[in-house]
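Duplicate of #3305? Posting structure anyway:
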């Protein structure tokens, strides 16, 4: 009996020890939490997106600055040194696997002018190739907007992304690439800027804005660029083409067309010059005899020309009047021969007065006086004009 009692007491002593260990492991939460208290961080980092951002050799300084701006906007990126252009693009999949990245942004330059962007989901795909146009870096823009480094962005997309299947695929690729994962070690746990992706003229326009207030006030930060989609492939950096842009024209062809247009302009100018030389008259002024016309004062020469024209007109009028008078006299003479002469009738006098030589000289003097008056007026106007100019100076 004594042994049984001892066993019971031992069991009773052991029971409270297990209860105390359970109480120690349990965390009792407070029934009410203050709003100012920080939220407890989630231990598990679920969305482990890492983006490899690097370039191939052959990009210029502006392209490199754009790549650095994009790296600054993405706290979940990883870097790599420049890739040799001789290497195949399938090597990028191996590089991203070595860096433990499942997304990749590869900047590829052509002729130190054009910049292409490869956006890929490593290693299974899909991948998309873009031509980057209208590049403006943060250093060039110097906008007033500003955001905290490492903060998470809101992604805003055009409604047209949901209408076409290739745009919906690109939308998902952009979300997974530019969206910063929650609880990333290098990110900040709040949103203070917005990435907008708008579709216009078959291109994707990128803008970055700071959120100033809750009512929707924004201020642009930068950078700015336009993505012109070229092709979408089923695999990562290759595979079958799922979609190809029918309206895409390479920048090399555009430059070729522009130079051809400029060449046509030059040819047209040469043809015009040849036509002008072929149709050019031998004498510059066929109506004027000799080049001495321009050696005299132009005002005096113009006055003489006016006087000569008016004298010639007067002579023509005088000749026509004489012809009309002779014709009327002949008609009257024929009529009088047919009729019986009347001695009592009074003689008929014509009202026309023939111009004699002294009258012509008078007329010439009058015209010269008029021309002198005109020349005096012209000289007075010129003097006034020169005086005004001298006063202004």
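Output from current build:
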């Amino acid at each position: 009996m004594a042994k049984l009692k001892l066993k019971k007491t031992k069991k009773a002593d052991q029971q409270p020890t297990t209860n105390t260990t359970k109480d120690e492991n349990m965390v009792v939460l407070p029934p009410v939490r203050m709003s100012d208290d920080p939220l407890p961080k989630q231990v598990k980092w679920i969305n482990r997106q890492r983006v490899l951002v690097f370039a191939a050799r052959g990009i210029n300084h502006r392209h490199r600055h754009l790549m650095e701006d994009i790296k600054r906007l993405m706290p979940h990126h990883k870097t790599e040194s420049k890739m040799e252009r001789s290497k195949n693009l399938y090597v990028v999949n191996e590089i991203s696997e070595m860096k433990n990245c499942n997304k990749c942004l590869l900047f590829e330059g052509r002729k130190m002018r054009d910049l292409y962007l490869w956006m890929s989901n490593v290693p299974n795909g899909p991948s998309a190739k873009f031509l980057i146009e209208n590049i403006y870096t943060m250093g060039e823009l110097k906008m007033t907007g500003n955001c905290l480094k490492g903060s998470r962005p809101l992604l805003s997309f055009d409604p047209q992304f949901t209408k076409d299947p290739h745009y919906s695929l690109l939308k998902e690729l952009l979300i997974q690439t530019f969206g910063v994962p929650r609880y990333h070690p290098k990110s900040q746990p709040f949103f203070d800027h917005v990435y907008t992706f708008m579709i216009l003229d078959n291109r994707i326009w990128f803008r970055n804005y700071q959120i100033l207030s809750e009512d929707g006030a924004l201020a642009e930060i930068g950078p700015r660029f336009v993505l012109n989609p070229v092709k979408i492939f089923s695999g990562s950096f290759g595979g079958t083409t799922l979609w190809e842009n029918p309206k895409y024209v390479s920048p090399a062809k555009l430059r070729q067309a522009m130079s051809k247009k400029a060449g046509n302009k030059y040819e047209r100018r040469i043809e015009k010059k040849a036509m002008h030389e072929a149709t050019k008259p031998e004498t510059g002024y066929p109506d004027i005899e000799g080049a001495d016309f321009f050696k005299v004062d132009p005002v005096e020469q113009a006055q003489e020309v006016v006087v000569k024209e008016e004298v010639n007109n007067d002579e023509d009028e005088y000749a026509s009047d004489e012809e009309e008078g002779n014709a009327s006299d002949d008609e009257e003479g024929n009529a009088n021969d047919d009729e019986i002469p009347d001695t009592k009738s009074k003689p008929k006098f014509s009202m026309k007065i023939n111009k004699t030589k002294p009258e012509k000289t008078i007329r010439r003097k009058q015209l010269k006086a008029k021309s002198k008056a005109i020349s005096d007026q012209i000289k007075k106007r010129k003097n006034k004009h020169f005086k005004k100019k001298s006063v202004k100076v």
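Confirmed duplicate; merging threads. The radius of gyration is 50 Å. The chain has eight helices and eleven strands.
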